Amino acid sequence: MKLPIIGSVSALKINVLRTNDDVYVKHYIPNREIISCKPRCNHCCYRKIYVSIGEAVVMMQHLQKKNKLKGVMERSSSTLQIATGTDVDTYYAMKIPCPVLNVQTGLCEAYAVRPPSCSTHFVLSDPEGCNQWSPTRVKYIDFRSEYHLQKYNEMNESKVSPALLLKLPIQKAFEVAEKIKEREFESLDQVLISIAKDAL
Fold it and tell me: Which of 30, 52, 114, 120 has the smallest number of CB atoms closer than 10 Å to its CB?
C-alpha cells in the first residue's frame, strides 16, 4: 500500500486549525484580553522561524489554493542559505522577513494555517517593543503559551508520523516539503529516511 504525503498530513492540519481557532486560544490562554499583538505588527516575522515538515506542507497547500505559493517559494529559496547558515541572533539582525510575510500589506499569507511557533507566541507590551531596530524601543514583555503549545504537541503525538514533526528553519522546511509532497512511500519509516536525507 502506497502512502501519499499530502494525505498523511490531514490530522496535522486539523490540529493546526484547532490551535489557531480564536475560541480555543481564549480558552487556553489566561489574560487573553491584554495581549497586544495586532494585525501588521509583524516584528516577530523577522525572527528565525522553525516549523515542522508537516506544517510546511499544510502551509503550501493553503498557499497553492490562494495562488500565493509561487511567490512564497521564490522568497524562501532566496534566503535559504542565510537561514541555514546563521545563528538566530545574526539572522534577526539582518532584518530578513519570513517568506510567508507579505511585506507590502504587512500580513501573513498563510495566517489561517500559521504554525504554532507563531500562533502561541504573544506579547503583553507595546508592539513597538518588539522592534529591535527602533531608536526609542520600549520594554518588551514576551509571552509564550506553553500549555497551548503542549496541547498541540499532544494531539500530534498520537496521530501524526514523527517524520512529519521534524522542525527546521522555515525556508529549509519548505524545500524538503516541496521535494517529498508528490512522492508516495511504502511505509512511515521510508518517509522518515527520505526526509532525513533531504534535510541534510
Answer: 30
Whole-model pTM: value is 0.81
Q: Which three cell numbers stand for residue 76?
A: 524562501
- Reported as a single tens digit per residue, the pLDDT across 88-112 is 989 988 999 999 999 999 999 999 9
**Cβ proximity of 157 and 15 under 8 Å:** no
DSSP state of 163: G
CA–CA dist 142, 41 (Å, integer): 14
For residue 15, what pLDDT is reported? 73
Of 2, 1, 19, residue with least CA distance to 155: 19
CA angle 184, 186, 190 (to 5 degrees): 90
- Alpha-carbon distance 46 to 25, whole Å? 23
Residue of 138, 111, 87 whose CA lies nearest to 39: 111
DSSP designation for 124: S
Run of H or E including 28: helix 22-28
Dihedral of alpha carbons 178, 180, 184, 187, sign: negative
CB neighbour class for 59 (10 Å; exposed up to 12, middle 13-18, buried from 19): buried
